[in-house]
Amino acid sequence: MRDNVSASSRVDAGETANELECLPYSVQHNDEGVCLLVRMGPHRILLDCGLKESSLLLSTLTKSAGKGSSPLPADLVLISHAHPDHARGLLALHQSFPLLPVYASEVTSKLLPLNWPDQAPQEIPQFCHALPLRSPVELQDGLVVELFPAGHLPGAVAILLTYTTVQHSYRLLYTGDFFLSNSRLVEGLRLEELRGLDLSVLIIEGTYGTSRHPHRRNQENQLAERINRAIADNCSVLLPTPALGLGQELLMLLRSHHHFTGRDLDIWVDGAVASGCDAYLELLPHLPPSVQNFARHQPLFWDERVRPRVRRLPPEHRATVGKSPCIVLTDSTSDFGQYCQPDTGPWLILLPEKIDIKVHKKYLAPTTIDSYLLAQHSDGPGTTQLIHNLRPQHVVFVHGSSTYLADLTSLEELQNRYHVHSPSAGTLVELPIGDTFLQPAAPETNYEGELTELGTVITITLPDAITADPRWRQFADTGLIEGHWQGEELVLRGLSQRDLLHQNSDRYTSSDVDCCGNCRHQRGQRCWNPASPLYNFKVTLEGYCPAFERLNDSQ
Ligand SMILES: [Zn+2]
Ligand SMILES: [Zn+2]
Prior knowledge:
Layout: H1 2-9, E1 20-27, E2 34-40, E3 43-47, H2 54-67, E4 76-78, H3 84-87, H4 90-96, E5 102-105, H5 106-111, E6 128-131, E7 137-140, E8 143-149, E9 157-164, E10 169-174, H6 191-194, E11 201-205, H7 216-232, E12 236-241, H8 246-256, E13 266-269, H9 271-282, H10 289-297, E14 309-312, E15 327-331, E16 347-352, E17 367-372, H11 380-390, E18 394-398, H12 402-409, H13 412-415, E19 419-421, E20 429-430, E21 450-454, E22 457-461, H14 471-475, E23 481-486, E24 489-494, H15 497-503, E25 522-523, E26 526-527
Parallel strand pairs: 3-4, 4-5, 5-6, 10-11, 11-18, 12-15, 12-16, 13-14, 13-15, 16-17, 18-19
Antiparallel strand pairs: 1-2, 1-20, 2-3, 7-8, 8-9, 9-10, 21-22, 23-24, 25-26
Organism: Atlanticothrix silvestris CENA357
Pfam family, one: Lactamase_B_2
Domain Metallo-beta-lactamase: 32-231
């Protein structure tokens, strides 16, 4: 009898059951926002809630709530960051399903109310629970979440979900919007925190497709140059931006760029951008140490004392503020005609690339419109770099125009290694995870071997799989190798025919490029120049330092 009970209640864990799937309600191909429902085993997790039309959101979600046994459209909601395309539908969602738990980072939970500027802040309920960074939290039985700073915006996180069954741990990472580079008010996503996660699924944004960006400092200089030229031409500059992120980055840039520091110039901040600045000031302890340090010496944004002056623009000054050249930052949704008035001088409206801003008014003052790049997301190479570091079985692209996402999904370097998806809204993506799935060949592989000490020599044994790498032939060309220590690690280098020819002269003369290899202070691959920061260190021959002096080589 007892046997019967236990036999009938024993549930086979279903080796063929599909434990993971993603139903995108909205994927931000244009500006419709991001809202994804992810299922991991029995858990239903809503990632972001950026749908613009809350009616659409609610009808969709209510339908899905009706389907299962649960009265809620998901078990919980996780918000990656406070931008409207990820969070604006949240208040309506909360009002319809007050029992649905919502989580985000602490900073995001504080910035969220900026999404509902028409509501009095004290009337917006505190429905978002703050989760700590870099620390796993079990939100439901067998479902653990961990947040990692993602760059892009203060508080923005990549969300790691781990669902554990008896047989298997499934890991899904959703990047939200991410940026690998440091910007002025937020540090970039740290790749090393995410490496080696053994991911099943990566849901990643692809805003910039495969395009490649110039170095951030160049982007900043080009923009500063453009603004500087306009002001020299007696033109005022209007910079429409979203409330959070870009606007504050622009202010920091304008206050610290050599074109503007100390200059008798007014920078006016209007609308939601000004509220965004106030919100940042409340978050000062969460901003990078360099910013906190800056703020100890002078106000971060509002400053009438230090030039250029940064001030809030009173509404009654809108129509007259451009009489002498100035800079105005305003809300990307505001009517720019308010500023470009007959009494003012000419205007230059500078629009950020890849941010949807409508400009269709006829202006009363002479007005030029131009665009600039100050990226807030990683470019194509940054995106593929993150993917290769994570090596998931599935890559799901969202957040970007469908053509840009198609550029990414068709990359051979991705197709060869991963299951790549770019779903449109409403299309269910099944994400089968095979134990037998061959982990894709990684761009970087570790080879484990053995050391044997044999009296006067040692031998290093490595598996012959290493010879499959195309680099092996060059490495093994002469059969001779050279080793040197790098900290505690031993680095091996294959000696080429050319190295052997030059070995006697101990000189690296093959290059016209200034580098340690042809610097007169380098001997035995060590720097002997006390004036160099590399003094006394082992150097690589391709290395360089400002104390470089060319070797006088008569050969
Ligand atoms: Zn964003
Ligand atoms: Zn976004």
